[in-house]
């Protein structure tokens, strides 16, 4: 069965739009972009479109790569203090000359709708309430939507980034899964992937996972987005795997749309907390 992330995400957005329509003051998301990265331009546009669709306010603040770090920090502090702003994100990646950790950690933990500040990462680690990164959250929501139980399942996560692999592993542990995390130093990846009841791949390498690397009737979640000659590919060889497994996400149309919906969801949750 193909997991339809687009459909699930549309349903979530419809529910959010309904809630927002009843609010007198609309929730507001601010996206800070530094530089003019082509992929970032596309992602920021997608966020703007999603906000417009559900009736949220959207503000795009774009700095060029000559901007002083202190100017960016000052702007974030100003937004932290603005009661009409419910979520702040810094679109990544940014130029290496900037201290990305310092910039991210300037965001108030309660407005950190990407869940990337040290405080929110720590809260997730300790299974306490905080804001959680949107892609891992979207994956959990997708699995829940399709009634794919996680308790006692062996879940193999390939990739251990702060954005996807690590926070996802924490959410999976919280759900009672037994989690194996693989990365670039893992020896013989297929030994692990072949044992997975649920395999989640977030690497960024086209078709890293081939048919011989997956277990029959397992569940495959492909987070990878690889843009090659204008076409999108996942990390999983979808065409040759789809008939061997019980569930699989396509690229595009799987995890991707869920990320934006979860971002809107985080903004709305925050808005409610701030009232
Ligand atoms: P990242 O920060 O580059 O992390 C990649 C991870 O993959 C690292 O942990 C790396 O290991 C591991 N890795 C690299 N080569 C490997 C190999 N041959 N075998 C096993 N592991 C390997 O990337 P990311 O930000 O997590 O993103 C991963 C992919 O997901 C990208 O394609 C990105 O575009 C996509 N993505 C999609 C969404 C969405 O909404 N659908 C959201 C975020 C990201 P080390 O840590 O050892 O280097």
3D structure, described in words:
The chain has 275 residues and is an alpha/beta fold. It is 41% helix and 16% strand. The chain contains 10 helices and 10 strands. It binds NADP nicotinamide-adenine-dinucleotide phosphate (NAP). NADP nicotinamide-adenine-dinucleotide phosphate binds next to helix 10.
What's the gist of this structure?
The protein has 275 residues and is of the alpha/beta class. It is 41% helix and 16% strand. The chain is built from ten helices and ten strands.
Which characteristics define this entry?
single chain; 275 residues; alpha/beta; five-stranded parallel sheet; three-stranded parallel sheet; 10 helices; 10 strands; 16% strand; binds NADP nicotinamide-adenine-dinucleotide phosphate
């Amino acid at each position: 069965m193909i997991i339809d992330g687009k459909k699930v995400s549309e349903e979530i957005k419809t529910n959010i739009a309904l809630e927002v329509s009843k609010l007198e003051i609309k929730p507001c998301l601010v996206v800070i972009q530094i530089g003019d990265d082509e992929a970032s331009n596309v992602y920021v546009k997608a966020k703007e479109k999603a906000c417009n669709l559900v009736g949220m306010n959207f503000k795009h603040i774009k700095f060029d790569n000559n901007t002083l770090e202190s100017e960016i920090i000052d702007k974030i502090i100003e937004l932290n203090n603005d009661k009409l702003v419910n979520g702040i994100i810094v679109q990544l990646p940014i130029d290496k000359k900037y201290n990305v950790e310092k910039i991210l950690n300037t965001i108030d933990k309660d407005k950190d709708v990407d869940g990337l500040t040290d405080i929110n990462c720590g809260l997730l680690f300790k299974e306490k309430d905080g804001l959680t990164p949107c892609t891992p959250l979207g994956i959990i929501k997708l699995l829940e939507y399709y009634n794919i139980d996680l308790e006692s399942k062996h879940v193999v996560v390939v990739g251990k980034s702060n954005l996807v692999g690590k926070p996802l592993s924490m959410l999976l542990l919280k759900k009672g899964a037994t989690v194996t995390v693989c990365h670039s130093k893992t020896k013989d990846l297929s030994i692990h992937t072949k044992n997975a009841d649920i395999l989640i791949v977030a690497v960024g390498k086209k078709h890293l996972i081939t048919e011989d690397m997956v277990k029959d009737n397992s569940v495959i979640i492909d987070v990878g987005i690889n843009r090659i000659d204008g076409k999108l590919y996942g990390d999983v060889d979808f065409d040759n795997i789809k008939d061997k497994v019980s569930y699989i996400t396509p690229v595009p149309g799987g995890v991707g749309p869920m990320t934006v919906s979860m971002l809107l969801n985080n903004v709305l949750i925050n808005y409610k907390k701030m009232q």
